[in-house]
Specification:
By secondary structure, this protein is an alpha+beta fold. The protein is built from 12 helices and 5 strands.
Length: 386
């Protein structure tokens, strides 16, 4: 190849982008042949050497992108790719394409510090080779600096992609942990409900059974009365279990908060939660959970918000405890002037069933504030009372 032929800088793209479409990465092999367009001499030898190098690289490239390729094999493939470039540069300066490939491949799969050292070393060896092949040292250094810029940009892009993948993996782990905690909280709620429902009744059944056994020989009518009461207690327990199972099928507020956080996170919406250390009565807990689900759905569909804040508080009053759920977003507002908010009717029905009320403040362009207030009378602490 004539020494007057300028090497062509060859870009590369992160392997993460073409791991699913490996043929895309081979587009850059065109830069191997580009310098021959400017050659004034015989290009047959350069063309033959370049074609042979590409034929060796293509199967190596596909093997490199396979998910079952071990790191040792990948290191060998990175070294082989760099050697292909060094071997081709004396015949065709476009061989720098393979050196850039090796740099980006190293940064894609190796530890960052090691990959940067290898990429820098590969570039230094290529620069020395250009100084040897090209008659003008200034041209050789200028081209090497241009390749350093392009290779550096490609490596930076790959490192950024690796950082995003790492963050996504951490986010997935966080989401899994949120789901696990939500499931744990729901199991604890179910355990408390079943204990409250069955604990007293089963103790009563045991006592009635023991008493009926003692009375059976002495007073048949009294024993029969105890058995009748036992039957009523068992039927009442069955009804309570059915109510508890029906409550289990309804997601609690804690679990619904976790689901809302995940949904908003996927929509790139920040969620701030402020909960007082309180335990909601079962009926209020279920109603608030369904209200939260509908409210978050409305936020995602209509509000165009970037931040949502949820507050739950309890305030003792003379007539009982007041439970207040507040949902605030920084979206476009104007909710009352829009159509399609079918959840508003549901809000009213649920709060009416609880003997409470709901309020909305949604000025256009200033977000929306929803408040749901329910009351529990004093002395009412069990599910039947609520």
């Amino acid at each position: 190849m004539s020494s007057s032929q300028p090497p062509v800088v060859s870009p590369a793209i992160p392997s993460a982008e073409y791991s699913q479409h490996p043929w895309i990465g081979l587009v850059y092999l065109g830069f191997v042949f580009l310098p021959m367009l400017f050659s004034r001499g015989n290009v047959h030898l350069a063309l033959l050497a370049s074609g042979l190098a590409c034929a060796m690289f293509i199967p190596l490239w596909f093997r490199f992108l396979r998910s079952d390729t071990g790191q040792r094999t990948q290191v060998a493939q990175i070294a082989t790719t760099a050697l292909l470039g060094y071997a081709l540069i004396p015949f065709n300066p476009g061989g720098n394409t393979f050196v850039v490939y090796s740099m980006t491949m190293a940064v894609a799969v190796l530890p960052v510090r090691l990959a940067l050292w290898l990429a820098g070393g590969s570039w230094i060896l290529m620069t020395l080779q250009f100084l040897w092949v090209l008659p003008d040292a200034r041209t050789a250094l200028g081209i090497s600096l241009a390749i350093a810029v392009v290779g550096g940009m490609a490596c930076t892009g790959i490192l950024m992609a690796r950082t995003r993948e790492r963050q996504q993996a951490v986010l997935k782990l966080s989401q899994d942990e949120v789901r696990r905690l939500a499931a744990l909280a729901e199991r604890e709620r179910i355990g408390r409900d079943l204990h409250d429902v069955l604990g007293h009744t089963l103790s009563l059944v045991v006592l009635k059974t023991q008493l009926a056994r003692r009375l059976l020989q002495r007073d048949t009518s009294a024993a029969e009365q105890q058995l009748t009461e036992l039957e009523h207690a068992a039927r009442a327990a069955l009804d309570q279990v059915r109510e508890a199972v029906s409550g289990i099928r309804t997601t609690g507020l804690v679990a619904e908060l976790a689901a809302a956080r995940l949904a908003l996170l996927s929509a790139d919406v920040q969620m701030d939660i402020h909960l007082e250390s309180i335990e909601l009565p079962a009926q209020i807990d279920q109603a608030m959970a369904m209200i939260l689900r509908e409210a978050i759905t409305n936020v995602m569909r209509h509000a165009k918000a970037k931040r949502v804040e949820v507050r739950l508080s309890a305030k003792p009053q003379d007539s009982g405890t007041e439970w207040r759920l507040q949902i605030v977003d920084d979206g476009v507002g104007g909710a009352m002037a829009k159509t399609g908010h079918t959840g508003f009717a549901g809000f009213a029905e649920r709060m009416q069933a609880l003997g409470g009320r709901w309020e909305i403040d949604s000025p256009s362009g200033a977000g929306t504030c929803l408040q749901f207030i329910a009351k529990q009378p004093d002395g009412c602490r069990n599910e039947a009372c609520t």
